[in-house]
Recover the amino acids of this structure.
């Protein structure tokens, strides 16, 4: 029987430059128009930007990541992605819960995001956290002109 003192197999930490290869692999495997290496490295240098990784404590590899911006009283989610070998294990849920905690700790009034209209899995994840759809950005995704659903979570 596991105890609360048992080491956690995964932990969330701020992305380091040495994580870039793992993050780039997840990015390429997860998105139709993946961000470039230089964009991620730029994010690491921005005061308002955060990229957090879910690290496998055993292997040291990144299983998932989330990037977001903290601007004034808002946390804006840019991406949450999990390596295909680690999907359906609750990692995206853990990262989103972490972001909600960061927003609360930062006295954010609201969390926002855009999600592809076709990404029902992500929309269900956000809905479980009480995000609600508030609008549509037509043709938001340049590579295929898919609409984005704008979702918000008002922090209490």
């Amino acid at each position: 029987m596991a105890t609360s003192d048992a080491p956690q197999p995964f932990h969330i930490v701020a992305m380091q430059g040495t994580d870039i290869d793992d993050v780039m692999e997840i990015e390429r495997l997860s998105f139709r128009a993946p961000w470039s290496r230089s964009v991620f490295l730029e994010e690491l240098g921005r005061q308002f930007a955060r990229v957090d990784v879910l690290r496998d404590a055993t292997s040291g590899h990144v299983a998932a990541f989330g990037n977001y911006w903290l601007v004034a009283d808002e946390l804006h989610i840019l991406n949450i992605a999990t390596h295909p070998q680690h999907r359906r294990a609750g990692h995206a849920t853990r990262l989103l819960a972490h972001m909600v905690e960061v927003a609360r700790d930062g006295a954010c009034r609201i969390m926002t995001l855009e999600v592809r209209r076709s990404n029902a899995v992500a929309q269900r994840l956000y809905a479980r956290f009480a995000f609600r759809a508030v609008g549509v950005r037509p043709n938001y995704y340049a590579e295929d002109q898919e609409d984005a659903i704008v979702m918000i979570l008002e922090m209490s």
